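Quick one: sequence plus nicotinamide-adenine-dinucleotide SMILES, need structure tokens.
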Amino acid sequence: MKHPHIFTRREFIKDTVAAGVAAAAIHATTGLAAPAAEPAEGAIIQGRKVKVAVIGCGNVSGSYFPTLVASPHVELVSTCDIIPERAEQAAKKHGVPRHFPHIDQLLAGPAFDLLVNLTDIQQHHQINRAALTASRHVWSEKPLGINYAEAKELLDLAAAKRVQLLGSPTVVASPQFAFMAQTIRDGKLGRVAAAHASYGHTGPSWSSFFYEKDGGSLFDLGVYSITTLTGLLGPAKAVVAMTGIVTPVRTITGKGEIRVAAEDNAMLIMDHGDGVLSHIQSGFNYYTAREHSDTEPAHHTLSVTGTKGALHLAGYDWGPHGVDLATRETGGRLQRMAAEAEGYQWQGGAVKMAEFLATGVRPRFTAAHAAHVAEIIAGAHQSQATGQRIAMASTFAPVKLA
Ligand SMILES: NC(=O)c1ccc[n+]([C@@H]2O[C@H](COP(=O)([O-])OP(=O)(O)OC[C@H]3O[C@@H](n4cnc5c(N)ncnc54)[C@H](O)[C@@H]3O)[C@@H](O)[C@H]2O)c1
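Reply:
Sure thing.
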């Protein structure tokens, strides 16, 4: 049987950031105590907890803090927000000793190993860059940067500084992703041809950056589907897209009416090579019965189809309930598979990164994959602006399932 396209291709580059990290330069810069012996591989921070600072104490931080507080590998050191009361309140609520109103003060404050960046989309690149420059490991909410050049600069900087960089989404870490990828790799769908994913709701109301230049539904929502489908089908060779603005004026809490500058409605087609195509739609004008919930267990949000079978993800890829699989072998009946979460949580990426620093166990998600996704979204915007099919330059190694 001919294997699906992704798994026969050999042109993937290696993950830019090597597994082993020489820690000496980091300890010289950050003032943190160096371990007795420098680990060539495995644990990067040994003999103590990973000291973590959180920047951006807004909406999503409410989901992150409890996971960080509960982690045996994490010691929360500082919080930071340009709205100083938010940093202060988060520090008080979660027992974090220090809080700061600016990244420069945060970096000059008590030593920490890992910066968890939960700020606005448009702020990610410059904050990630400042932290990497200061030899800190970085976990970034999506996207790493708003295009491939920004993301690649961060990958190169992390490699040069010999620190680790990882970012959201964590969708490839779910057992449902692993099941889908393994099913495709095992050839159970036959020759994979096409895939589709849809993610939308009626749009955030708490912050305007989602609707400002370089925001939009692809960076906030489509980014999950793009990560999952490139993870399953391989890197995109090219993209075409159309985007639009359906709701030109929005009301934002505490701010009033704003004019929308970024797309709130997007459709994207990716060419994965060898004839394999996928389609993604995202938007901030989608009625869903339960709004931004992970949907009912019967709601299929993502499907992959081949010559001998098809699979459908139940629930969104960031909060999946299971995978419904139908193949010729099973007579075409849908069977619910991979129905357990097995500890997977969409907001668990920063904790997984701290675990990686403390134990050497690498998560499935990589910065190279996140950078490729940033290129795809920037390519979608370019396609809309020019009417052209946009070739992708970047790639990433297949997601390791073991
Ligand atoms: N809200 C969610 O449910 C959710 C879920 C997954 C991912 N995300 C992602 O998380 C990120 C943040 O989203 P949010 O919903 O929490 O937004 P938010 O506006 O509620 O929070 C962002 C916070 O960052 C702060 N900030 C902005 N620029 C800063 C800077 N330069 N220095 C320090 N602080 C700064 C803001 O003051 C604000 O408190 C986005 O990338 C978003 O896509 C959000």
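The chain has ten helices and 17 strands. The CA atoms of residues 180 and 232 lie 7 Å apart.
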